[in-house]
Amino acid sequence: MLRAKKNIFGSWRASLLIILIFIIAGGIIARLFLIQISKGGDYNEEAQKQQQILQSLVAQRGDIFIQDRYKNMEASAPENAEPSGAISEKTKNYFVVATSRTYQMLYAVPKDIQEKEKAIKEISALLGQSEAEIAAKINKSNDPYEPLAHKLTDEQADKIRSLNIKGLFLMPENWRYYPAGNLVSNVLGFVSATGEKNQQTGQYGLEAYYQKALSGESGFMKAARDAIGRMIFSGDYDLEPAKNGDSLVLTIDQNVQFMAEKELKGVAEKWQAESGTAIVMDPKTGKILAMASLPDFDPNEYSKVEKTEAFMNPAVQDVYEPGSVMKPITMAAGLDTGKISPETTFTDAGILKIGGYTITNAAEKSYGTCTMTKVLEKSINTGAVFVERAVGPDVFRQYVEKFGFMESTGIDLSGEVVGKTSNLKKGGPEINFATASFGQGISMTPISLISALGAIANNGKLMKPYVVEKIIHADGAEEQIEPEMKRQVISPQAASQLTSMLVSTVKNGYDKVKLSGYYVAGKTGTAEVPNPEGGGYGTGKFIHTFVGWAPAYNPKFIILLKLDNPQGIRFASDSLSPVFGSLAKYLLSYYEIPPEE
């Protein structure tokens, strides 16, 4: 009987085939897992890029306006400017000092440039850049987009077009533009742009302080695209509109600002001062009508500024020892506590010894028996110490605190600092309180000083200074900023007494401050700059300050003037009195303030 032989070879081939099928299936499953699970998100994103357009929508930065008292001018932006939309009937009486302007940007697609040598030579000459720098960008053959220059002038853009070089392109882009140039620059700050997307960020001043409000919020648009990349709106698409930034209306008046800057520059140049500050404020509200600083800068060309100190606003960011302009604060403490009156007398020997230290008056003068009014008129250091001793160190320190010298004013500008009064500690050396009474050994910012003296002008009420009067939102809604009283520092009676004393100080001391028909209150300060390293004085550098207000008994403005290290003149009464008189006379006329007498 015959038996069939087992086909071993056939069985082996079937097994191999089955194994191969399992391997292939496993590979397919693994590949599917990789595509759908592990890298599913990446492939899905790539597919969406091919089938959809996702475009970021840039918000328009808000504008900044200043006041103009008389001109009902249309506040239209300059040529090529593109205001955020806030310029309307609501803003026509204002003057725009910061807005957006369309410039042309030059970029290259290196792989498309055939005339590279010509492009390098022509662009280098046009932009003032080295040929090597241009060549390094144009020779990036795999780069589809290479920015070459921003903010081209109209002439530069026309020249680029006339070259007609394939692979070079112009594209419009918005940049911050400051129509008034250097005017109010230390208050505004500037906007810097970084990255290929021209990301704009406020630096210094209002641009930094109100960065979030001014910049708005970016949006996006996502829609399907056809085979050649065009957007398809017939289907579903997502749109999140950009929210344009808010616009700011400042308390600053352009005419007052212009005059303050003009007067400050004139006196700084005359006496070759290192720097200077001028502030004009409404003491009843805290509104800043002008704020000028030297050195200043053109925010349109901030990149050309060699020393970054020019970006600072010394009105809020620098502290200094004020000298005798501090004496009204000391006198306020004495009057408010009832320890002295304007007629209180003391005998000045011209010299005072405290704990091994010797205090003298300016030019080492001696005045004999003096009233408190005469102490201010003659700026007697020993008289200020007399008042400080009468109220006592602890009470004196309390008034220094109440007048705001131990805190920030809260002004809406970036970088505000607080003065140094740490040496007025409870139980501290008597000499520290004595010298502080006439403005040595303690420091403050100009804004804190004018705010404190403004409280005396304002019946003892300390107001919070501010520079933004109104915020206009992109939808047209307005947010009005109201004046804010911080506290009652001294009584109205004490404030009135002290004002009369300061009127007498002007009347009997500062001829060039006198204004026919008006009472003016004021005080100067001439302080030697302390040695920052070894302590003490003897640097030979001085800071001049003048603070005054008018009309004295119903003030419409208070002015602070400060000069750092003027040359060839010793006292602030000589350097700054004429400037105060000139600026005050202008303000009385500008605001049409009737004479008092």
Q: What would your notes on this structure say?
A:
- This protein is of the alpha+beta class.
- It folds into 2 domains: 56-245, Penicillin-binding protein 2a (Domain 2) (Alpha-Beta Complex); 251-301 and 321-590, DD-peptidase/beta-lactamase superfamily (Beta-lactamase).
- 34% of the residues lie in helices and 24% in strands.
- It has 19 helices and 23 strands.
- Strands 2, 3, 4, 5, 10, 18 and 19 form a 7-stranded mixed β-sheet that branches. Strands 12-11-23-22-21 form a 5-stranded antiparallel β-sheet, with helices on both faces. A 3-stranded antiparallel β-sheet has the order 1-8-9.
- Strand 18 and strand 19 form a beta hairpin.
- It is elongated.
- Mean pLDDT is 86; it is low at 49-55 and 72-87.
Helix content: 25-40%
Task: Output the structural class.
Answer: alpha+beta
Let me know the number of strands.
Answer: 23
Average pLDDT for all residues: 86
**What is the level 1 CATH name of the largest domain?**
Alpha Beta
Largest sheet: 7 strands, mixed
Radius of gyration over all CA atoms, rounded: 35 Å
* The CATH architecture of the largest domain: 3-Layer(aba) Sandwich
- Give the percentage of residues in beta strands: 15-25%
Unreliably modeled segments? 49-55, 72-87
Number of domains: 2
Shape: elongated
Count of alpha/pi helices = 19
CATH-assigned homologous superfamily of the largest domain: DD-peptidase/beta-lactamase superfamily
CATH domain topology of the largest domain: Beta-lactamase
Q: End-to-end distance, in Å?
A: 151 Å
